[in-house]
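Protocol step 4 of 6: structure prediction from sequence.
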Amino acid sequence: RMQEEKDTSDLPTMSAASFSSCIRGAPVIARRDARAIRRTVARVPMVTRANADIMSEVGTAVLTDGQLQGERYVASNRFRLQAGKGPTFEKRWAERKSRLANLDGFRFFTLMRRVEGMGGPPKPADADEEYDYVSLTIWEDKSGFDAWRTGEAFKEAHGGGTIFGFVEMLVSSMMVLKGGPKPAFYDGLLPVVKPPPEDTPWKAVGGWRDVKADGVNPLDTDVYVAMNRFKVLTGKEEAFEQRWAERESKLEGMDGFLTFLLLRRDALKAEDGYNYSTLTVWRSKEDFQAWRESSANSAAHSKAGEAEPMFDGPPSPVMYEGVLALLSEKGA
């Protein structure tokens, strides 16, 4: 019998052919003889080699001299789920083996569950379907992320570093995911970070959270995450970043505020067109709503209409409930 299902977590997207070939072969491994198992093992490395370097999916952005320097590095993976599979997906994450919080350069992690609300312009009829979940990890810089993705900790969290563990994840993912995961990487600009309160229950005191999950009910929410995504026109990147660098913000004085970053996509070209996004983390939805209704929010956006056009379409807000949050002593 197959072992308990494991999540595909931060695995990159693979081709449909390589994915389906693993799915077809893996369910009958236990019934094959030793010679057949050896044949299966011989085929699997073609999949792992094709996805050994997840950065090859997107490339690395080329910056101008006038653009801001990154002060964080943010790695994310986006997932679309089959209907009703959210609690199952969260259970896999809760039960995975990970020592993420103990790694050099780690600052923050949460698994983000998309929620509706907060308005925004209607999406065009031909717009891509939103992702249901996003894993998000903030690192001090790219070197910490690179060390993680090429080290033993990555293998442990993705099937234990064995071929059979990797195959099992591919098999189980077909029962939960709708298509493959899609990675996205960002430079984190202009960080505003509030040190975590003493009573924060999800400080990174261990490698991973000990959270009970039954696979039936959603996990309790730890944080509320608001993002606003932008399609900045080519040649307007410097002006856009400078606008944010010069704006007046009073986020640090707001109750429940934890973290802000301006995210710049680290890719030769963002496949969804969103090359920038804001990321704001709050203790709760109520704290976020209080900020939206405050004079501090009005002041921060008071000059938005005065700037020259620099967008290909309106901004696109998206909101999440963050579960399984981990936070370093320094904050994000």
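Step 5 (inspection) to follow. The chain has ten helices and eight strands.
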